[in-house]
Amino acid sequence: MNGTYDLSQQAYFHLREDGAFIGNDPARGPWSADHCHAGPVSGLIVRAAETEVGSEKMLTRLTVDLLRPLPLAGLRVAAETTRHTKTLATTRVTVHDLDDTLCATATTMHLARRELGPVPNVSITPPPFEGAVAGAFPIGLTRHDLPCFAHFCETLYAKGSDQGAGPKTIWVRTPSLLEAETQSPVQALCPLADCGNGISWNAPTNEMGFMNTDLTVQIHREPVSDWLASDSICHWQPSGIGMSQSVLFDTEGPVATALQTLILFPPS
């Protein structure tokens, strides 16, 4: 499934003494050997926002605008509070490269947790986990030959499911965000949240590129399991614009939804 890659030892990033985040092989994206997959970087954004706001409030919405490629060579992430009340907090987060070029901006919403006891709710069963079988990460082909994000994901599919083009549901267990640090549940969700386009593509990467320009994740419950699932669909249009929609699950049920705006680019 993952060749000889050591899933247990490789984190997405290591933290340099000067505070820069340096990408390891698992953080490499499918389109360029020198740039990050945006999912792990979104985890760094959540980490900065959660540190800024504190653990009393839960991060419930993340919106990331990807302005430039995100270099593996190093990133700096900074968060500032834009509003903080008893009920909610919001932040603005910036991601710069080591030359201080702005690569991404993000905003987050955090809501205060309360203990209401049982409340009426819908019951939605997660995708089948028991009996799921191992398979390769669905994006398949990459546009370089180096180890990257897809090689370090443990991936499961429902037995007998179609792993070709189109809508798809997968279970994934991903590496840790940082070496020697326990990630939060929402940080752990981010790598999968940014995979809708790579899960439910409508043609392989050697026929069409499908890079996302943003990511919005709405979280209504923090996941409680290491294995997370995504039920994803992509819409591609002749205008060169597309969208992916994903519902994200842990082993107990749905936890979030994720949206990506896509730009389509045929092979040059």
Give me a quick take on this structure:
This protein is mainly beta and 268 residues long. 11% of the residues lie in helices and 38% in strands. Strands 3, 4, 5, 6, 7, 8, 9, 10, 11, 12, 13 and 14 form a twelve-stranded antiparallel β-sheet that branches. It has a two-stranded antiparallel ribbon with strand order 1-2.
What does this structure look like?
Helices cover 11% and strands 38% of the residues. It is built from three helices and 14 strands. Strands 3, 4, 5, 6, 7, 8, 9, 10, 11, 12, 13 and 14 form a twelve-stranded antiparallel beta sheet that branches. It has a two-stranded antiparallel ribbon with strand order 1-2. A hairpin with a 3-residue loop joins strand 4 and strand 5. Helix 1 runs antiparallel to helix 2 (185-193). It is globular, with a radius of gyration of 18 Å. The two termini are 30 Å apart. The model has no long low-confidence stretch (mean pLDDT 93).
Poorly predicted regions? none
Overall strand count: 14
Largest sheet: 12 strands, antiparallel
Q: Give average pLDDT, whole number.
A: 93
Count of alpha/pi helices = 3
Helix content: 10-25%
Rough shape? globular
Coarse structural class: mainly beta
Strand coverage percent: 35-45%
Radius of gyration: 18 Å
Secondary structure topology:
Blueprint: E1 13-15, E2 21-23, H1 38-53, E3 57-66, E4 75-84, E5 88-97, E6 102-112, E7 133-134, E8 154-157, E9 168-173, H2 185-193, H3 196-199, E10 209-212, E11 214-219, E12 228-236, E13 241-250, E14 253-265
Antiparallel strand pairs: 1-2, 3-6, 3-11, 4-5, 5-6, 7-8, 8-9, 9-12, 10-14, 11-14, 12-13, 13-14
